[in-house]
């Protein structure tokens, strides 16, 4: 009898399951500016979030009629009724209209400084979550180069440093995990040590932002935003994946996991390892010692409440980076095609970053606090694996504290910001480039926002003071013959840098679809340690480098104009800028030879510089289902050394990026795309530069998303970069002087599973 009962119950259960259906749908945005939407089944306590293709689904729903509510920041909520039938998929589409005051909606860009989306600053958000953007050998800069006005200076694969509107190196501030990175004080061949692990998006601020970010933000800011999926995941979730790059036989494996626990506690962890052999140029030449590898790990924990949240994060990275020598094309260091063992010379770099971020809503005002410590260990090993040619340890503590409150139409922000840096040469190194040095820098700023009808006015003022101490009194400096500028008897030097910066801008909403921005801002940069105190050979180069302790800080002023038009299927962004930089620091060959070493002497010098240019970005969405997208971005920048009446060095050539993306299949979960990057001939070379030919690169790719159950997905993509195997030397490549070409054709295979 009991078997009959069990059989009846089983049949009943199967019958009930057979009555279930599902809902699948997509969400589109009137102005194409929306990033994601939340879909809720009213009265059922069920909700989901759109994926990267703006698609969503609900599975195993009993027959019946359901009310779906769609919400997204800046758009009018939409409710639709959907009928579910057994064993059928009910499809639905939502098209969200902007609220009447969409252009006045406020989205926080950077919580630390209080910068929001209505700012007159020119900024561009870049999503890093697309599967085809993951694990590029060029790191995050491989994607940022597609942003008009942004370029990258390469030193082989693994080291690409950002340039914004013709300014780069330590003139662009990079904020990672809330910390302003200072681990690139020693020259162009030192990378940031940041990849896309745990990164959701990047905001690029173009133009001086020193009033909010201090020294180093003279050219702009790269704000790297974490993927904080663990703050909303009620169950254990995450992703893992792997990437193969044929140009270097490179393999990268990565993964992340996290969850929000009871009592609003959360945790997250991310791991990645990548390993690359030497890359091949378009001619098929293997560029010896371009190999590199990198290990990364990050952990996060904190509390996320409505009125209080904090996060403690720890990041670790270890890099081994081959140094391509200047005679590589004549005397190649290439070995077997899949050899990954490090060769001489190479860099060995370790970074540990500990950061704490906190926000408290006090009711009448809000307070934000950040504290971080960054340890950087850098070794350059040139002649012998057991000897370190250049070894430097850097410890940097950075803090930021801000209070903001509203008084009607005014929003006030008061902030304190600063860092304490200590740089030391390691013991028993073969070369001394800079002395032991430390500095402390503190700044205070005030920013006020005035929001009135169709106008948003933002003004800010800041004062900074930095004191630097250099100490070459240790015996290792005496034995190496290292001297400070002016050869003081105490073998120590002190330098001070201080001054004001400010900005004033206005955002005018011309209509529901048009916006105009104008911003006048100043920026500054205190000379870095190499520019002040260098005296010695820089390993990996044929230069004897000399600094100048009498430098003044760089000071700039820039005018920026921006117009945007946002319509149903069309979007236009157009910007022009002009700036002047006083005390601009540049590097120049003196034409002299250092007697002891026989090396060419290069000196840092200062001059007055002028830069100007513009960018344009066009987006168009075609076809009835909005499945075909076009994007065109172009930029030009000009730079002049006014004291010598010649072009500045390291000015990017005119460039254009064009992309076509077509989505098809169920819920447009398959995407076919092509990219064209056209770089013009740089016929305005600066001092010690030569003209560089232009080039055109074509990429094609295909990506597909596969659904597994309600929440699990598998993403896969195949991309052919530099499809026609172009052989080229980029003007901003540090290897340009040796005519060493950039990578050739690359087949990138990417798979990621999300759960």
Draw up the topology in text.
Blueprint: H1 2-18, E1 21-29, E2 38-41, E3 46-49, E4 55-61, E5 64-71, E6 78-84, E7 89-96, E8 108-110, E9 115-116, E10 122-127, H2 141-144, E11 150-154, E12 160-164, E13 167-168, E14 172-176, E15 179-180, E16 199-206, H3 210-213, E17 220-226, E18 237-245, E19 250-260, E20 265-276, E21 292-304, E22 308-322, E23 346-361, E24 366-381, E25 390-407, E26 410-425, E27 436-452, E28 455-471, H4 475-480, E29 492-509, E30 514-525, H5 529-533, E31 535-537, E32 543-546, E33 554-566, E34 570-593, E35 600-622, E36 628-641, E37 646-647, E38 655-664, E39 670-679, E40 695-708, E41 712-721, E42 746-754
Parallel strand pairs: 1-7, 14-17, 32-35
Antiparallel strand pairs: 1-4, 2-3, 2-5, 5-6, 8-9, 10-16, 11-12, 12-13, 14-15, 16-17, 18-19, 18-42, 19-20, 20-21, 21-22, 22-23, 23-24, 24-25, 25-26, 26-27, 27-28, 28-29, 29-30, 30-33, 31-32, 33-34, 34-35, 35-36, 36-37, 36-38, 38-39, 39-40, 40-41, 41-42
What does this structure look like?
Pfam families: CarbopepD_reg_2, Plug, TonB_dep_Rec_b-barrel. This is TonB-dependent receptor. The protein has 755 residues and is mainly beta. It is built from five helices and 42 strands. The protein has a 22-stranded antiparallel β-barrel. The N terminus is likely disordered.
Rg of Cα set: 27 Å
Give the end-to-end Cα distance, rounded to a whole number of Å: 43 Å
Work out the number of β strands.
42
The shape is: globular
How many helical elements? Answer: 5
Strand content: over 45%
Structural class: mainly beta
Family: Belongs to the TonB-dependent receptor family.
Protein name: TonB-dependent receptor
Membrane topology: Multi-pass membrane protein
Signal peptide: 1-18
């Amino acid at each position: 009898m009991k078997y009959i009962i069990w059989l009846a119950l089983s049949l009943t259960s199967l019958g009930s399951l057979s009555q279930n259906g599902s809902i699948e749908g997509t969400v589109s945005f009137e102005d194409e500016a929306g990033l994601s939407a939340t879909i809720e089944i009213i009265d059922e306590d069920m909700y989901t979030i759109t994926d990267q293709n703006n698609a969503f689904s609900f599975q195993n729903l009993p027959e019946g009629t359901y009310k779906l509510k769609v919400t997204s920041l800046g758009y009018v909520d939409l409710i639709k009724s959907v009928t579910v039938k057994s064993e059928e998929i009910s499809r639905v589409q939502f098209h969200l209209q902007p609220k009447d005051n969409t252009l006045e909606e406020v989205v926080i860009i950077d919580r630390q400084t209080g910068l929001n989306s209505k700012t007159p600053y020119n900024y561009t958000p870049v999503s890093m979550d697309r599967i085809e953007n993951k694990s590029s050998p060029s790191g995050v800069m491989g994607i940022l180069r597609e942003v008009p006005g942004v370029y990258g200076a390469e030193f082989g694969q693994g080291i690409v440093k950002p340039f914004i509107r013709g300014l780069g190196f330590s003139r662009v501030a990079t904020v990672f995990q809330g910390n302003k990175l200072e681990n690139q004080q020693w020259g162009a061949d030192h990378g940031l040590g940041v990849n896309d692990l745990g990164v959701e998006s990047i905001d690029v601020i173009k133009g001086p932002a020193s009033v909010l970010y201090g020294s180093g933000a003279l050219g702009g800011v790269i704000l790297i935003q974490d993927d904080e999926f663990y703050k909303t995941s009620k169950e254990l979730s995450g992703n893992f994946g792997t990437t193969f790059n044929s140009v270097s036989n490179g393999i990268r494996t990565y993964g992340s996991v996290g969850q929000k626990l009871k009592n609003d506690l959360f945790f997250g962890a991310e791991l990645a390892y990548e390993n690359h052999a030497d890359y091949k140029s378009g001619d098929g030449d293997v560029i010896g010692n371009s190999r590199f590898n990198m290990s990364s790990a990050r952990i996060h924990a904190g509390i996320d409440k409505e009125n209080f949240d904090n996060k403690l994060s720890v990041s670790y990275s270890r890099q081994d980076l081959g140094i391509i020598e200047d005679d590589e094309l004549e005397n190649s260091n290439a070995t077997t095609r899949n050899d990954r063992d490090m060769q001489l010379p190479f860099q060995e770099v370790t970074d540990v970053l500990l950061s704490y971020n906190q926000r408290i809503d006090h009711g009448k005002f809000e307070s934000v606090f950040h504290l971080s410590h960054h340890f950087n260990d850098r070794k350059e090993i040139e002649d012998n694996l057991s000897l370190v040619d250049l070894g430097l340890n850097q410890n940097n503590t950075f803090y930021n504290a801000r209070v903001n409150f509203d008084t009607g139409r005014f929003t006030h922000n008061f902030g304190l910001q600063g860092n304490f840096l200590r740089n030391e040469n390691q013991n028993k190194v073969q070369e001394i480039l800079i002395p032991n040095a430390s500095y402390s820098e503190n700044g205070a700023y005030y920013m006020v926002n005035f929001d009135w009808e169709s106008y948003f006015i933002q003004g800010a003022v800041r004062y900074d003071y930095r004191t630097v101490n250099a100490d070459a009194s240790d015996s290792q400096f005496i034995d190496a013959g290292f001297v400070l500028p002016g050869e003081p008897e105490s073998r120590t030097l002190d330098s001070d840098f201080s001054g004001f910066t400010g900005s004033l801008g206005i955002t005018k909403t011309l209509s529901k679809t048009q916006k105009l921005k104008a911003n006048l801002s100043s920026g500054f940069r205190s000379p870095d340690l190499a520019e002040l105190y260098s005296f010695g050979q820089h390993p990996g180069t044929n230069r004897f480098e000399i600094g100048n302790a009498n430098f003044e800080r760089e000071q700039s002023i820039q005018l920026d104009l921006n117009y945007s038009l946002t319509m149903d299927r069309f979007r236009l962004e157009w910007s022009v800028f002009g700036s002047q930089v006083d005390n601009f620091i540049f590097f120049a060959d003196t034409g002299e030879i250092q007697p002891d070493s026989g090396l060419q002497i290069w000196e840092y010098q200062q001059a007055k510089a002028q830069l100007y240019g513009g960018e344009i970005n066009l987006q168009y969405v075609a076809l009835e289902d909005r499945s075909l997208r076009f994007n065109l971005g172009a930029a030009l920048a000009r730079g002049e050394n006014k004291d010598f009446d010649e072009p500045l060095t390291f000015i990017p050539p005119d460039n254009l990026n064009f992309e076509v993306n077509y989505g098809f299949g169920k819920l447009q979960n398959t995407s076919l795309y092509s990219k064209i990057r056209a770089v013009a001939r740089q016929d305005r070379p600066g001092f010690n530069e030569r003209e560089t030919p232009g080039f055109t690169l074509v990429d094609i790719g295909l990506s597909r998303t596969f659904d597994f159950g309600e929440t699990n997905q598998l993403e896969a993509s195949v991309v052919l970069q530099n499809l026609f195997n172009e052989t080229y030397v980029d003007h901003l490549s540090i290897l340009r002087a040796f005519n060493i070409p950039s990578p050739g054709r690359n087949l990138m295979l990417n798979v990621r599973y999300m759960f």
